Amino acid sequence: MKNRKAHKGTMGAVLLLAALFTSCGADDPLPAGGPLRLTGVEVETGEGSAATRAAVTTVEAISVYATTEAHVAYGSNPFSEYRLQNNSWSADAAPVIIANALLYACHPPVVGVTHQADGNHTVPVSVMTTAGATDFLATDQPDYLYGVSPASGLAPVTATSGARAVSFRMKHALAKVSFRIVKSASANKDKLELVQIEIQSGTSRLQSGTGTMNLKTGVLNGLSSTSLLTLADAARPVVLKEQQATPNVSCLTAPMTGKETVLSFRLKVRINGESAENAHAFETKSVSAEWKAGYHYVYQITVDKMGGSLSSVKIDDWKSDANQNTSIGI
Question: In the record, which residues are listed under signal peptide (predicted)?
Fold first, then answer.
């Protein structure tokens, strides 16, 4: 009789351990109430997305802002910074979710968010503030991103007390503009070095300066309209070749304020080692364009000692824009 009781006790312990092991499975909901958990961050590229985890390090930190469904700042620490370390995302002071929360995210991380009662919260941005200028490789140009739900593609992302594990897909608020600049066969014996390229907008559809990014829509506000953006680097000129498979000049720009019908590019090229001050100027004919957030526009320009021509334009990489994906011969 004693052995039977001992056997029953052992079986009961085994069943209890099994139940505990099952209840702690990785796929089960988190216990109600507790810190927000970030399970993944993706960056929207091309037709799909690339997970930014161990193998991809483009985004290793984001800011997260939490509000109630009534657009009131959430709890005592609604603002936090999550960082990717050892294949997982963590925050020093994650918000504690005890009721439904609306979550907004951005990159690069910021020190604070400007709260709006209607939920259109913003963060500061700065786009080509130095007289609308940058170098040939977009050095020090931040790529502003805002977070949406991977499922719906919309912001904000919702967390609840029983579903505190969330993920974000980060979308681009800027456009990327690149150039494949080559020299013609007639200049094959000459050394041509690009020292400057001006992007000229006849109806001032370009934008630069300081402003804000809406965390719900990614829309930029407060920038100044301009007719000129300048990319220059006389200290590190681009040596032009006859063949150029990939872009040799790139920059990040704010979306245009509308369709530009008089867009042209003015290049300054140093020939055979002459000084940058004496560089030759080449200007393309005008084309139409409307640069949009999240799109990558690639222009090919051919330069010789007589002038420059825009031989083609295509849309590449982040997204494809069928309306502007056309070849332009000049």
Answer: 1-26
DSSP code per residue over 102-121: EEEEEES--S--B--TTS--
* Single pTM value for the model: 0.82
Q: In Å, how far are 187, 200, 205, 261, 270 from 226, measured between CA atoms?
A: 34, 9, 7, 15, 27
pLDDT of residue 155: 99
Residue among 205, 143, 209 nearest 170 (CA): 143
Is 252 within 8 Å of 270 (Cβ atoms)?
Answer: no
Question: With 60 as the cut, is the pLDDT of residue 167 above it?
Answer: yes
Give the integer Cα–Cα distance in Å for 290 and 144. Answer: 19
Instruction: Pull the structure tokens for residue 124.
Output: 């500061």
Q: Count Cβ neighbours within 10 Å for each residue of 241-256 and write b for 16 or more, e otherwise.
A: eeebeebbbbbbbbbb
pLDDT at res. 151: 96
Domains of the chain: 30-108+143-172 (2.60.40.2620), 175-316 (2.60.40.2630)
Helix, strand, coil shares of the chain as percentages rounded to 5?
10, 45, 45
Residue 263 tokens read as 């867009």
Q: Report the SS3 class of residue 9.
A: helix
Residue 137's pLDDT is 87
How confident is residue 141, by pLDDT bands cut at 50, 70 and 90?
A: confident
∠127-133-138 over CA atoms, to 5°? Answer: 70
